[in-house]
Amino acid sequence: MPTQICSRCQTDTETVVDHKAGHELCSRCGLVLVINLFDEIPDSVEYGDETKNPVSEIENCSSFNSNDQKTAKNQSKKGFEQIKVMADGLGLTKEIQDRACDIYGEVDIMKTCRGRSISSIAAACLFIACKEIGSSRTLNEISAVADGVSKKNINRTAEAIKKQLEVESWILQPGEFIRRLCSKLGLKNRAIKAVQEAVERAQHLDIRRSPKSVLAAIIYMVIQLCQQDPVPVKDIAMVMEVTEVTIKKSFKDISVYATRVIPEWYAGEEDINKIPSP
User: Fold this and answer.
1) Vertex 247, ends 274 and 250: CA angle to 5°?
2) CB-side neighbour CA atoms (13 Å) of 36
3) Of 164, 193, 209, which marks where a domain is finished?
4) Is the full-model pTM beyond 0.85?
């Protein structure tokens, strides 16, 4: 498709040809860029019993496209504003906020999430940005500041964005995130340190489970070795936002490596081998 500099858009834009009127138009705003493109151009075009002026039709089209552009800009502005409000509510850095806005802008241009609400798209973009930059927030936390958007909706929208855009896949959670989750489950500093070290060791093993599942299973194992009241599996599942079945399956895969994963300074081999199945 040919391109030209559009005086209204102030950018190099693709053009389209109105073969009936003989004009070349900006594909973005509908502005007439070239008049009388062909040698023979009709002064008017007949439509049934009515005769319409092509230039008038183009002007109407241009006006319509202009209104569409204004609507799109307003929606983008609203999305950016929602991202800022959510980021402030979670105490996130400007780096994360800016990255979320970048992702939102790409989604807006590519129309990746047609039919989804601005709030769900903004929340999903912020969720992805957190994952990329390493200041992870759970779906529960994002949903709490997302103007009523459910965790399920945010997750589905994030998956739709990931399929279309070049964004990082979910990564193994950073230390700060692990500490926050463990604290919610009542783990002390020594146990939290054991979980963090176990997660690092697990990265070098052939464990074919998602990072979140691996982390959930490791937390379960460390809790079983704690000198404190045990935490129910359902509570671990709730905090980790996984199912109890997921923890059971992940434990089965990881338990064969338990003595290599759990730090020696935290528990002996005999105790590790006695960890019960969830």
Assistant:
1) 75
2) 3
3) 164
4) no
